[in-house]
Amino acid sequence: MMKLFSGVSALVVASVAGLATAQAETRTITFLFTDDDQGYVQRMADLSKEFEAANPGVKINFVSSGYDAVSKQLPVQLAVGEGPDIAKITDWQLAPYYLDMRPYMKDADAFAKLHGSSLDQLRLPNVNDPQSINGYMASQTLNLPFVNKTLFEQAGEPLPGPTAKFSEIVEASARVAKATGVQIPFTMDRSGHRFSGGAFSYGSTYVKDGKFSFPDEAARKYIADIYSWTQNGSFPKEMWGAAGGSQYKNMGDEFVNGNVVTYLAGNWMVNPFQNKIGDNFEWTAINAPCGDAGCYAMPGGTAIVGFKRTKYPEDVAHFIEFLGSEKVQREIAENYVILTGAEIVDPQYKLKSEDAKAAMRVFLDNKKNVPQAARDFERVKGGSAMYQQIVQRMSQLIVGELTLDQTYKVLEDDVAKINEAVAVKK
């Protein structure tokens, strides 16, 4: 058997190979899982053991690996008929390899009802059957601004309201920073994904007639505004300029240290913030920034899916049905502060901090504020490459290597090349 992923221990790989001799007695399913929260990883390993105990004859070979190994090697493995039976993924372009588990489930209709429209996110047009059940959304993420409430109070500045424009949030943050002496009024992670929520609020669509179309007029207006904020100090240029190329950079520690008034990130930061900030200051999340098109939160997510390559589709379906059950999904949501794809009624998140509880309420309320254009963008091959070019070109603009007009032109050229590359691959 081919080695699944670099970085997986030799012991684990050897155990996978050794199990082949026992398949006459035991049906072995390999489950590849990745997450930064090691407690969550361990719980998924324990759940695998629970399923084994309730299903004699089935062995779950639980493999935990780093995100980079999964994202880079899983597509290659699946393309040659190798890889796991089940995996946690973030790449929707793996849709051609999905197993439709609906025929094998014990109660497919109940599963579909619990997970609702979130199952649509996994299905690609003209690839997956519109009624297929390929897995479930393990988490849904949203990008929203976090604000340091203590700084706003010290400055005598009210928190931005539920329909505040992006520009109004940045301007209010600048006034707070000036009044309190804090270094950074507004920032966001150095990420194309983090950049994009504001672009959609301004009215950009990213995709037109099945191809990338960027930067359109709305995106140009947004880019120009960001540039102006970096010029007047509202969005310090060092935040993006300090790293090179398309490299990702997280700004969370600056917020934790009290150096940032407003930080655009996502709900995955709520749990770390409650642990790291403690009682140092009060904080919360606020509604998605508004623009001419609306008040939009940029979506993202992870999924746990089964693959057609499996020898045991019925066992895979039953395991997915177990993991995706209301009981398990409620436990995962509450203990690890996760917005699941399953419609869990009134989840009781295990949050010690009142600030964290308030922030999660805001994220839950903003689940409805996801633009369809962002969903469409998720389904088009080449999106990751476009994100990378946005980061690189915005960085060049911010540090003065490109003018605004040059930035628009090089982005157009970048997107044209991505469209050409995608067309060739088809």
In short:
This protein is an alpha/beta fold.
Question: How would you describe the overall organization of this protein?
Answer:
It contains 17 helices and ten strands. The chain is an alpha/beta fold. Strands 1, 2, 3, 4, 5, 8, 9 and 10 form an eight-stranded mixed β-sheet that branches. Strands 6-7 form a two-stranded antiparallel ribbon. Helix 2 (38-54) links the parallel strand 1 and strand 2. Helix 11 packs antiparallel against helix 14 (354-365). The radius of gyration is 23 Å and the shape is globular.
Helices and strands in order:
Layout: H1 10-19, E1 27-33, H2 38-54, E2 58-64, H3 67-79, E3 86-89, H4 108-115, E4 135-148, H5 149-155, H6 166-180, E5 184-188, H7 192-202, E6 207-208, E7 211-212, H8 217-232, H9 238-241, H10 252-256, E8 260-266, H11 270-277, E9 283-285, E10 299-306, H12 313-323, H13 326-336, H14 354-365, H15 372-378, H16 383-398, H17 404-425
Parallel strand pairs: 1-2, 1-3, 5-8
Antiparallel strand pairs: 3-10, 4-8, 4-9, 4-10, 6-7
Helix pairs in contact: 5-6, 7-8, 11-14, 16-17
Helix coverage percent:
40-55%
List the total number of helices.
Answer: 17
Gap from first CA to last CA: 29 Å
Label the overall shape.
Answer: globular
Main sheet characteristics: 8 strands, mixed
Uncertain segments of ≥5 residues (pLDDT<50)? 6-23
Structural class: alpha/beta
Cα-atom radius of gyration: 23 Å
Proportion of residues in β-strands: 5-15%
The tally of beta strands, per DSSP, is 10
Residue-averaged pLDDT, rounded? 89
- Secondary-structure element string: HEHEHEHEHHEHEEHHHEHEEHHHHHH
